[in-house]
Protein 1
Amino acid sequence: DAGVTQSPTHLIKTRGQQVTLRCSPKSGHDTVSWYQQALGQGPQFIFQYYEEEERQRGNFPDRFSGHQYPNYSSELNVNALLLGDSALYLCASSTPGQEYSGANVLTFGAGSRLTVL
Amino acid sequence: RKEVEQDPGPFNVPEGATVAFNCTYSNSASQSFFWYRQDCRKEPKLLMSVYSSGNEDGRFTAQLNRASQYISLLIRDSKLSDSATYLCVVNPRGGYQKVTFGTGTKLQVIP
């Protein structure tokens, strides 16, 4: 049973460029959340996708956008990259069925490490 | 005030020691609580959920104090393999609401 897969694992971009990160959720999961984790910090919620729509969004500018496909896979796009966007970007999947149990257990992918020069 | 606060540590403890971490949260409507473990440069992985009555999983015990709005994690008989960052996670409401992570507490178990 494949877990959450993310690609690419590492990438280097320069300021002003655009980047697309990809995520395939764990089998049986239909909800995808994206997090940004800067060095020494906890993951910060970017947004969550369910049924191909953005359902929740954290405090991130519009330069951060996303998409979810019918097969539940998701993309995170970041435009006009800034040095401060350098971070580990984590994708996490879950299933709404877990909501009714009072839990929202997230399964994380290994992340995409973005360096902006 | 941050939504979820943790002492960043590091906590340096000898093998076999007992260590405890606390985490405070600001949203009194929070309903779900978890501890995640994150190894260096790896993804976070669920360690355990935290239930209102407290719960135990082997050497790990989690407690919730709703009145004071904090959760705790106790690790007994620390192993070298317990060295990691422990992230406190709070969910304001079940399921659809975004979960909030603390900054993490770093634990280093020393031989």
Protein 2
Amino acid sequence: GAGVSQSPSNKVTEKGKDVELRCDPISGHTALYWYRQSLGQGLEFLIYFQGNSAPDKSGLPSDRFSAERTGGSVSTLTIQRTQQEDSAVYLCASSDLGYQETQYFGPGTRLLVL
Amino acid sequence: LAKTTQPISMDSYEGQEVNITCSHNNIATNDYITWYQQFPSQGPRFIIQGYKTKVTNEVASLFIPADRKSSTLSLPRVSLSDTAVYYCLVGPSYSGAGSYQLTFGKGTKLSVIP
């Protein structure tokens, strides 16, 4: 079917507010990844899901960040009490079986915290 | 974690072959090397993946020496449309039982000049 989709495409929020970013992976892909890309920077790995399980959450920048995946499909990245340094593009990717498989990236959500 | 190092930028004229090298001195035995291409305002796109020696596809070649401490992405006869940022990815790297990390390089900005 379609590629990886993310919503919203853009999000502007005020410092201290909570935000939820959504990722719809390619249908049937068991692995899902979240990355953060600050302006002009490389990709920072945040978390990986195999099915609904995230074996390692240590890549999340702080305890204000959390992620979940339900039904082996949609994933939500939640940032609580947003800070200005959270402003970045948040990219989601999925792959067929696991981490050594080709990752297909979504277009990203551009988050701006004022 | 397998840290990667790439040149920040490269310039090339159209029609030339471009070689981008990524250093990954502490690559682990089960790590693969993957290269992605990213255009502005888009998510990265898979180019090529390898474990050792040489891999070639319709877009690029990937050269990996026997010690696997570096890899070189080769783009034959580049065109203006190859202007993009190229990322080297090494992974997975296990930091413990059930732990998992992916490490992208900071990317090489390739500018193709007419």
Protein 3
Amino acid sequence: GQSLEQPSEVTAVEGAIVQINCTYQTSGFYGLSWYQQHDGGAPTFLSYNGLDGLEETGRFSSFLSRSDSYGYLLLQELQMKDSASYFCVPNAGKSTFGDGTTLTVKP
Amino acid sequence: KAGVTQTPRYLIKTRGQQVTLSCSPISGHRSVSWYQQTPGQGLQFLFEYFSETQRNKGNFPGRFSGRQFSNSRSEMNVSTLELGDSALYLCASTLNDGASYNEQFFGPGTRLTVL
């Protein structure tokens, strides 16, 4: 079957670094993507890891380990506007978003 | 290039009624996916259409159906509405050009309330 695990909530302060972990179990896995959704808004694409290793996009980095069925999103120099929900999405035909992780950034 | 549009943005229906939601993907995008988002269940995949054919389907009852037209526009229909169908319904379009991964572009959603 398919399963997806992320922490439900994470809290951090401005300027800090936070890591959101994701473990998955799915068949036909091609890669892992991350989406951000602000309250009341639509999800927007952040990054995709098709291969093992780290992908960096500005303040955000994403990591994938296929052998461990594990990935994470790293957010650096946190800003208040980073308060949002973050979804890891295995790329495997059906898109499983799950409940995501709600990140709250405090001043 | 215009983004994904969904109509209507808000809808109020009563139990037992049916509803049709519409999604226009980004020009040139060939794949449309539908999702249901509720506070308790997160973001759940309904189905995906590509070239007028349903390519993937989530775990929803048969009351939920969809279709895609030749211009890639898509509609989803929910029949015999239940209170639990109250949710934000999101549509996402994907280019689907054969690349290893195509990001999904989401529309603003249709907020359905069932009374």
Protein 4
Amino acid sequence: DAGVIQSPRHEVTEMGQEVTLRCKPISGHDYLFWYRQTMMRGLELLIYFNNNVPIDDSGMPEDRFSAKMPNASFSTLKIQPSEPRDSAVYFCASSAWDRTSTDTQYFGPGTRLTVL
Amino acid sequence: KQEVTQIPAALSVPEGENLVLNCSFTDSAIYNLQWFRQDPGKGLTSLLLIQSSQREQTSGRLNASLDKSSGRSTLYIAASQPGDSATYLCAPCMEYGNKLVFGAGTILRVKS
């Protein structure tokens, strides 16, 4: 398997523009996670899905952030409008998890977002 | 709210030393605890996963222990090598949902 795939790897945009980050989870995984990593706050969970349904979005910082998972093989994280403080590395991860599973979360390479 | 603390924040050692990285967490209602490695500019790679019912887990030169009741985990690295240089992250997985809470990490540098 190719692992978790994220695109783009790097994104530079101007304040106020819409940004869309994309993720393809590992085939067969039923959980998908979006994280944000900054020097100040470390690695934070933004939202996660189970079987394409959002389960917990309590980490989404503001209404400017939205995430969707239209099918089992694709998810997007959208920021509209973007602000300089949104600059960070955004990671997508997936897992196959139940109360008897030992599967861990597998992370993608991340998207480095810079908002000017 | 789960708080995760990792000590030390940074560590620089000569090659060959045995290392101890510490992780503490405030909420013991965890399902498992995972240790990850992150290389500069890269994603996270899972190293070890310890179930809450286990005391330790081993993989090669790595050994992780877990004391759930006291809220502590330790990662031992034996005979360190320059290739071990990376940031090591501890992340307990909460019982109430499949959520990892990350510590700030320990930045390790192994000098040749």
